[in-house]
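Chapter summary example.
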Amino acid sequence: MATLHTVNKSAFERNSLHSCLSVCKSDGSVLLIEDAVIAALQNTSVSEKINKAVASGIQFFALHEDIRARGLPEQRIMDNVTLVDYTGFVNLVTENDRVQNWL
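The structure predicted for these 103 residues follows.
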């Protein structure tokens, strides 16, 4: 059963993303929302964790509206993180068997 994991806290302030990745399976997806979108930036202390997770089969997404709301430059978003809008968010929810929120 595929699970969509939504993470909304910054990986630089909380361990929500780390906890999520410790249980996320290779058929899972992670959607970064709110302050968690900062983890999608290239060349940070979190980038390597995301790269390892992607190499194991986990898909990463970030909410485009939250990237813009925080003034993050889109050209600095990691190549293996797909930006989605709210419609894409809904599609991810419906494409997965369940949703796990990491607050």
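To summarize the output: The chain has one domain: 3-102.
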